[in-house]
Every structure is written in C-alpha cells, then in structure tokens.
Design goal:
InterPro entries: BphY/WalK/GraS-like, HATPase_C_sf, HATPase_dom, His_kinase_dom, HisK_dim/P_dom, HisK_dim/P_sf, PAS, PAS-like_dom_sf. It catalyses: ATP + protein L-histidine = ADP + protein N-phospho-L-histidine. Keywords: ATP-binding, Cell membrane, Kinase, Membrane, Nucleotide-binding, Phosphate transport, Phosphoprotein, Transferase, Transmembrane, Transmembrane helix, Transport, Two-component regulatory system. This is Phosphate regulon sensor protein PhoR. By secondary structure, the chain is α+β, with helices and mostly antiparallel strands. It has 4 domains: 96 residues, no CATH class; 91 residues, Beta-Lactamase (2-Layer Sandwich), CATH 3.30.450; 72 residues, Helix Hairpins (Orthogonal Bundle), CATH 1.10.287; 147 residues, 2-Layer Sandwich (Heat Shock Protein 90), CATH 3.30.565.10. It contains 10 helices and 12 strands. The strands form 3 sheets. The protein has a 5-stranded antiparallel sheet, with helices on both faces. A hairpin with a 7-residue loop joins strand 3 and strand 4. Helix 6 runs antiparallel to helix 7. The longest helix is centred in the middle third of the chain and has 37 residues. It is elongated, with a radius of gyration of 39 Å. About 1% of the residues have low confidence.
Length: 424
C-alpha cells in the first residue's frame, strides 16, 4: 500500500517542481501551477474513462495504470474474479438443487411474491399438468380448486403441518396433498404429493373398523342381555358362578364402550361435517359436573369456574362428548383427596375450556403421543384401567372439526391441564 502512495506523492512533487521552475523562468507562477493542476486532473479523468470503458466492456484483461490507479484496477479485478467464482458456485448449487428436485416423485413448484411460477420439476407436469410455457403465470390461474386458492391466500407464515387435499387436475381419481414452504425473500415452495393410495388405505381401514364394529354390536347385545338375566338370578346359583358372570358382564360393558368409541372415531374421520348450532358451553359443563357428582365411586371434588357466558357454534353432541371425556379422565387419574378444576374463560386468544387436576401427571415423553389411538400411559399408583384408550383421540378429532386445538400441560407429581382452545 505504501508504494503506490509513494508513487502518487512523487508524481505530485514532480508536477509541483516543474510548475515552480516554469514559473521562475516565465514569472507567471499562477499560470504554471494552474497548468500543473489541470495536468493532474486530466490524468485522473483519463483513468476514469478507462475504468468506465473496462466495466462496460466486461473484458477480463485489466487496464494498464500506475500508482493509485494501478491499485484500484487490481482491487476491482480481484473483486470481479471473486464474484465470478461465487457466481459459479451458486450456479453449480442451483443446478444440483434442480437436478435433485427434478428426480423427486413429488411435484415441486417455486412461487414468486405474486404466486407466479418461477420453476417446477417434471413431477409437476405429471401431477399438476403444468407446461414449460406456464412459467410466469400465477398458479391459481392453472390450479383452480377453491380450497387450494383459499389455502394459498391464507395469512403467512405457513408451517410444514399446513396442507390441503385436492384432486389432481390431470390424473383421474388421484388425490394430491399440497404443502407450502416459505423460503428466501418472498419466495415459496409448493410441494404436491400423490396420496391416492394412502387415502384409499385410510378409507379401507375406516370402513373395516365401522363394519366390524357394526357386526359385533348385535352378538354383543345378545350376550349382554343374557348376562344381565343371569345376574338377576344370582339367588338361584352358587356364589362362585355369580362372580364369574359379574366379571363377564363388566368386560362386555367395556367392549360395548370400545365399539361405541370406534364408531364415533370412524364418523369423525369420515367426510361427515358437524352440525352448526348454538352450543351453550356453560350449561354443558354444569350438566357434566352434576352427572359426575352422582357417580357411585368416590372421586376428587370438581370445582367449576365460569368466567364467561359466551356460546360457540358447532355440534353440541360432539362437544359434549369431548368435554365429558376430559373430565372423566381427570376423575380416573386423580386421587379422591385431590382436586379438579373445570374452567370456561375468554381472553385475547379466544375461548378456552380447561380441565386441571393435581393428579400424578404425565411424563413429557408421552405428551406427543397421548392422543393416539389405544396409547396408554402407565402411571404408578393408579390402577384404573377401565378406559378404552380412545378418549383423547376422540377429543382431538372433535376439536379439529371445530377449528380448535387441544393443548396439554403436565408435569409428573404436579398434575395436568387439558385445554380446548377455540381460537378467533
């Protein structure tokens, strides 16, 4: 760095010396120094012109210069080479990304800020019917399903769990699951997966469960009727037989509850939409709490806190079942000397129903799976196993039908809180 500044300083010193000698000879010092200054400026203007011409031409060869301008040319040349190498790396990465994405079986479309198509892979041609000429077009003009348009226009940001099922625009009887993943500055990645076989298997499973449950109901009802008749005749049979029939009746009743829950889950998972009616949640909670007070078994007392009289719109019978499941679960796992609090309140988020207890609590590793079918948590000191393992699965499905969420807070030894959030 010192050398080019030294060259520049010596160049200026030489001009000043020549101007001084010329002024001494001619006696016009002002004109001599003005000429030296004009010569110095002319040199810089000449190099600026060369720099501009070089930048415009895009040539790799660096212009010749001296002193300060040699350093400027060199630094710009090095910056241009560095940017060129970076551009090559980016292009190579982009090519690798496009090659990898093109090989995916899922349709992948890059969308701009106005939902215009920037790029798509070969699977998008097969599943969505896109063509090369569609680049630059808005995707909602090509995929016109109302639910897809509504999903695409919903407020940002999307999460990986957000998705919508639509029919394929080109494949008959094919179902696509569409996800939107935001990335970059205003860009979004649309991923459409063919879930035709998956939805078919889900429908087969649902139909199988429904059919088996229906077929089991009739023989189970007959068996239950005979067992109840035998229980009524307990005075005419040996004591040991009565205990056997009593256990059989209990298991028959448990199987009846299981079948009823399976049928409800099947109904919730079908395309059946819940009824839209006024649901007086405070009255429902009072009714459930009053019914639990009549239970024969000893249980923890329930405290009901109604902070708002607000109603919601939905299916009253389904919501009654969901709330009842949560309260009965709290009764099962909370000792008689414990306490249970049921709340109905409203805040800036929306309406919320909570069931809080000070029972044994649930370990954190079980919380993500506790709403799965038949998932049971072994809790020390609790021997109650009368449940079917479907209660929380039913609660989750009922709430999802009402655009609500089930949120669970729990800590071993400190109790649990199950909240039904009805968001605005």
């Amino acid at each position: 760095m010192r050398s080019f500044w030294q060259f520049e300083a010596s160049w200026i010193s030489g001009l000043l010396l020549v101007a001084l000698l010329a002024g001494k000879v001619s006696g016009a010092y002002l004109a001599a120094f003005t000429g030296a200054l004009a010569l110095y400026l002319l040199r810089h203007i000449l190099h600026l012109y060369r720099l501009l011409a070089w930048l415009r031409s895009g040539k790799r060869k660096m212009p010749l210069g001296s002193g300060l301008w040699e350093e400027i040319y060199y630094l710009l040349y090095r910056l241009m080479r560095r940017n060129k190498r970076r551009k090559k790396r980016l292009l190579h990465m982009l090519e690798r990304f496009q090659t990898a994405t093109a090989a995916l079986p899922d349709a992948t479309v890059v969308l701009g800020v106005r939902n215009e198509i920037i790029w798509f892979n070969d699977a998008a041609i097969t599943l969505l019917g896109l063509r090369k000429s569609d680049v630059g077009q808005q995707v909602i003009n090509l995929v016109r399903f109302p639910q897809f348009v509504e999903f695409l226009r919903q407020p940002q940001p999307h999460t990986q769990l957000d998705s919508v099922d639509i029919a394929s625009p080109v494949l008959m009887d094919a179902r696509l699951q569409v996800r939107i993943v935001p990335y970059g500055e205003g860009l979004r990645l649309l991923v459409a997966q063919d879930v035709t076989q998956l939805r078919f298997m889900e429908r087969v499973r649902s139909d199988f469960v429904a059919n088996v449950s229906h077929e089991l109901r009739t023989p189970l009802t007959v068996l239950k009727g005979y067992l109840e008749t035998l229980e009524d005749a307990q005075e005419q049979m040996p004591r040991r037989y009565f205990q056997i029939f009593k256990r059989m009746n209990e298991q028959t009743r448990r199987m009846q509850y299981l079948i009823d829950d399976l049928l409800m889950l099947t109904r919730l998972e079908s395309d059946h939409k819940p009824r839209s009616e006024d649901v007086p949640v405070p009255d429902i909670l009072r009714e459930i709490c009053d019914e639990t007070a009549l239970m024969k078994e000893e249980h923890a007392p329930i405290s009901l806190e109604i902070a708002t009289q607000a109603h919601i719109t939905g299916d009253k019978s389904l919501l009654y079942s969901a709330f009842s499941n949560l309260i009965v679960n709290a009764l099962k796992y909370t000792p008689a000397q414990g306490r249970i609090t049921v709340r109905w309140l409203q805040d800036e988020i929306g309406l919320r129903m909570e069931v809080e207890d000070n029972g044994p609590g649930i370990a954190v590793e079980h919380l993500p799976r506790i709403t799965e079918r038949f998932y049971r948590v072994e809790i020390g000191g609790v021997s109650n196993k009368d449940g079917t393992g479907l209660g929380l699965a039913i609660v989750k499905h009922v709430l999802s039908r009402h655009n609500a969420e089930l949120r669970i807070r729990s800590k071993p030894g400190e109790g649990s809180c199950f909240g039904c959030y009805f968001l605005h």
